[in-house]
Amino acid sequence: MTSDVTKTNSTIHRSHALRGFILLLIAVFFWGSSAPIGKYLIVTRFDTLILAQTRTSLTFILLLLYFLVKDRSVFKINITDLWKLGVLGVVGISLTNYTYYFTAKESSVATAILVQYSAPVWVVLYSVFVMKEDKLDRITIISLIFALIGCYFAVTAGSMQRINLKGWAMITGPMSAFTFAYQIVATKQLLKRNSVWTMLVYMFGFSAIFWLCVNSPWDIVAKNYTFNDWGIFWMFAIVSILIPQTAFASGLKLLNVSTVGIVSILEPVIAIVAAFFILGESLNIIQLWGAVLVVAAVGFLQAHPMGMNKTLWKSIPSAKAE
To answer: Domain-by-domain residue ranges, the chain?
Structure first.
């Protein structure tokens, strides 16, 4: 009997972990694929501010209208979490997006990606030594090292000349890494007490309010954006943040933060491959080997028995309970 229950629990564990990984892969696929699109739009058509603003603001409008009609219980929230969601929306979403795009514009896309994706290091250290929710075991360390080295070669092709942190980018670059790390950790904590949809609605809502203070509606109207421009804004908001952020939060609910942080390093790999097909950018053998290292790191984590969220694991009925 005990053996049967143990096998059942193990199967449930693997099922939840696999579902979490699939959701994360969906998130990084959409994030990575939209990166070259965002770059193209900024270089050829729009400024960084309006693109960062409309991504979150239009996403909030979509979620707000949908849940006002479908399920208003989503808006119910513990008042003590309100300010935390506000900080997450402003710091974790707005500042992460803007500092990344600003760094890419002032230095290079390779620099912006490489600096921002040092975030998993801080996520792992915080999760192990502060939150004490994860263990710094051999598989986690190897996966993190493989992912970081792979990211470096995938993004830079092994050339330090592509790394050019200068001017204000010396501040915004590291800031984007810390705010992205904060986004992962804070999202994880808030998901313990709130549903994915509740968190997303309030997070995007506070982000939208913040952007309205920075770039007011009349400033936007003065730009005379066309109907086609707004069509682009809406589509970009859906594919670059609504779909991936929803999948990311759902996956984060099932996995621990260290695993999520490391898996997120797949995003720049997907971004350079997407840039190759969409923008015709170069992709050489060194970058491909870097991509292989990142994929290998994710493969190690997927097979890791401790990858699933501990809180969720504890909720699975034990043999003793039987």
So the answer is: 2-134+160-281+310-314
